[in-house]
Amino acid sequence: MRFKRNLQIVEGRIGAVPLVNVALLAGLFFILSSSYVFQPGINVEMLNLPVSTMVAGAPEHNAVMVTVTRDDLLFFNDERVDLEKLKAGLDETARRFPGIRVVVKSDQRVSYERLVQILDLAKAAGVHHVLLATRPLLNQPATPPLRPPSAGLAPQP
After folding, report:
1. Is 117:83 a contact under the CB 8 Å cutoff?
2. What is the gyration radius of the CA atoms in the chain, in angstroms?
3. Which residues, including other chains, have CB under 8 Å from residue 91's CB and lie 6 or more apart?
4. Which residues have a Cβ under 8 Å from the Cβ of 137 and sit 6 or more positions away?
5. Ramachandran assignment for 114, one of left (phi > 0), alpha (psi -120 to 50 degrees), beta (any other)
6. Is the distance from CB of 145 to CB of 51 less than 8 angstroms?
């Protein structure tokens, strides 16, 4: 049994539109599958703590970030600063935005003395909400975070 062939070879140009479509889809695929780096160049190994020791109230848009690296470099909102500039920045931020939160993200090798200095600067600036960023332990049962006692209210058991 013979089959009839209906094959034609067409000579001509290759259409540009399909090639552009393939290139755009490939580019979109690579952009969406790539990982994002929020703070390039700042490597911080945070402490791993159980979820139950973390304080409720994750930082939102009303928070500023203070980062301390293992080399004792200070960053205030992704800008490298020294202690004097950090104090001025915290004073200005607390004056302009009362009730602002300060999130301290420090490397686990940073000295306790440096953390206390930063906490004292925040307290002197009038910041009442200072959070220490940690990384939760993996494979731990989820427990509700501890809530700080409100002013005038007794903690609930």
Report:
1. yes
2. 27
3. 125, 126
4. 48, 49, 50, 51
5. alpha
6. yes
Catalogue all structural domains in the chain, each as residue range(s) with its CATH number: 48-136 (3.30.420.270)
Helix (H) or strand (E) holding 84: helix 83-96
Instruction: Using the structure block, give the residue that is written with the tokens 């420090």.
Output: 106
Residues 6+ apart with CB under 8 A from 34: none
CA distance 11 to 104: 66
| Gap between the Cα atoms of 91 and 123, Å rounded | 10
Residue type, 141: P
* Residue whose entry in the numeric block shows the structure tokens 């159980």: 50
For residue 76, the tally of other CB atoms under 10 A from its CB is 20
Which residues does 97 contact at the CB level (< 8 Å), separation at least 6? 62
**Model pTM?**
0.54
Residues 6+ positions from 51 with CB-CB distance below 8 Å: 136, 137, 140, 142, 143, 145
* Per-residue model confidence as pLDDT tens digits over 33-83: 876 655 555 555 655 555 444 443 444 457 888 999 888 889 998 889 999
